Amino acid sequence: MPSQIIQWFPGHMAKTRRLITENLASVDLVIELLDARIPHSSRNPEISRLCAGKPTVTLLNKASLADPAASARWAAQLQGENCRAILCDCVTGEGFNHIMPAVRELLAEKLQRWADKGMHGRRLKAMVVGIPNVGKSSLINKLAGHSRAKVENRPGVTRDKQWVSTSIGLDLLDMPGVLWPKFDDQLIGENLALTGAIKDDILDVETLGVLLCGRLRRLYPALLTARYKLKPEDLDPSVDDPSLFLAIGRRRGCFISGGEIDTERTANMLLDEFRAAKIGRITLDQIPTART
User: Alpha helices of the chain — where are they, by DSSP H?
Assistant: First the structure.
């Protein structure tokens, strides 16, 4: 993966770090959004460090696009004494009925103290954190019942903090979604690019298409074969990833004049179909066997 995607918006990360630090004491818990297709790669380690010790509800968003078996393993992995993990879809609202029970469970002692003091009906406050394009604004608008946070299907739309009231007894503080300045693991940068957390227009789309082919042939060969009507020889170990990419373009009829493969069209088609789960429900981050 080109090195330019490894460095991204350090100034914005500093601003988000400051906002989190300044506002963390004023909230009762943190709602962290991850992309269920890349739970590890979409978790900003800096935000996790800043929010350490705060009760956290971790929402694995876009679960309808992810491998259900892998999502179940990730939810179990992320669950902890001070954290509850929930599979959800911030567009349809799937899984939202589990949010408040998890919040009440995590804050049971605080809620009891409030009740003992006669502070019934006091609204809870949660800080919403996550990387760009992971669904924070969709979550907030769904819980609020109307559009309060700006939503666009591209990274980096929310620029500043904003408070939003909801009908479930939670006031939500939306934080800007920003990636960390440096990815120590190139695989993380690749996964973020493949799922659209990094803007497509700063990347080589053909490189991404070849990367996706390689990842899917190793993780989900049956889905790849079925979607693009591949033959066994297309996935032979002797066929490298660029050749497989071209074979898929050929199967789909992505040609330009002279009979050459239109590599840009092939790459865009692959990325669009992966992101829309047309290839199948896919999780790129795998939990190592030793940790399951």
Answer: 10-23, 45-50, 68-78, 99-106, 108-116, 136-144, 186-195, 205-219, 221-228, 241-251, 263-275
Task: Write down the residue that tokens 């408070």 correspond to.
Answer: 163
Q: pLDDT per residue over 27-61, tens digit each?
A: 999 999 999 999 999 998 888 889 989 999 999 99
DSSP secondary structure of 187-243: HHHHHHHHHTSS-GGGS-HHHHHHHHHHHHHHH-HHHHHHHHT--GGGG-TTS-HHH
Contacts of 13 (CB under 8 A, 6+ apart): 46, 178, 179, 180, 181
**Could you tell me what percentage of the chain is helix, strand and coil, using 3-state DSSP and rounding each to the nearest 5?**
45, 15, 40
* CATH assignment of 204-291, among 1.10.1580.10, 3.30.720.210, 3.40.50.40, 3.90.226.10: 1.10.1580.10
> So what's the pLDDT on residue 4?
45
Please write the tens of the pLDDT for every residue from 216-270.
Answer: 999 999 999 999 999 999 999 999 999 999 999 999 999 998 889 999 999 999 9
Domain residues of the chain, as ranges?
3-174, 204-291
Topology classification of domain 3-174: Rossmann fold (3.40.50)
Q: Backbone dihedral region of 145: left (phi > 0), alpha (psi from -120 to 50 degrees) or beta?
A: left
Q: What is the dihedral of CA 94, 132, 275, 67, to 10 degrees?
A: -50
CA atoms of 254 and 277, how far apart (whole Å): 20
- Contact between residue 74 and residue 85 where contact means Cβ atoms under 8 Å apart: yes
